[in-house]
Amino acid sequence: MLIDVHSHYLPKDLARALERRTDPPRIIAGGGKTFIEYGEGSMTPLAPVFTEPELILAGMNDARIDHAVLSVTIPGVDWLDPVEGEHENAARLFGIQVPARKAAD
CA 51 to CA 76: how far, in whole Å? Predict the structure, then answer.
């Protein structure tokens, strides 16, 4: 049995939340490519294999991997803005309990 213990995944709901953002971290498109922008001058290409479970499974089959441990790729939910509710809404996608926060005065 072969197990991949380090495989990244970006759930589609989190990707949609990042696409709605106007400030980093966010997902942007340009020149026919999609990128995750982490901050000024810091971005990485976002390949479909990060968001499409079917592609992940196909790659696993090609490599004869039986199981994979998935981790949410950065930026994850912890970079989202808790004041705007992004953090709590995205965290619910993964069943993460987020403490209630008091809005800034």
Answer: 13
Torsion (CA) 83, 76, 13, 39 in degrees, nearest 10 = 70
* pTM of the shown model: 0.72
Q: List, edge to edge, every strand of the sheet that includes 33-39.
A: 26-30, 33-39, 42-45
Half-sphere exposure of 102 (CA within 13 A, CB side): 2
**Residue 86: C-alpha distances to residues 8, 20, 67, 103 (Å):** 21, 10, 31, 13
**Tokens matching residue 63:** 């490599």
Mapped onto helix, strand or coil, the DSSP state of residue 70 is strand
- Rounded CA gap, 24 and 47, in Å? 18
CB 80 within 8 A of CB 17: yes
CB atoms within 10 A of CB 62: 8
Q: pLDDT for 57-94, tens place per residue? A: 999 999 999 999 888 888 877 677 665 556 556 556 55
**Are 50 and 10 a contacting pair, CB within 8 Å?**
yes
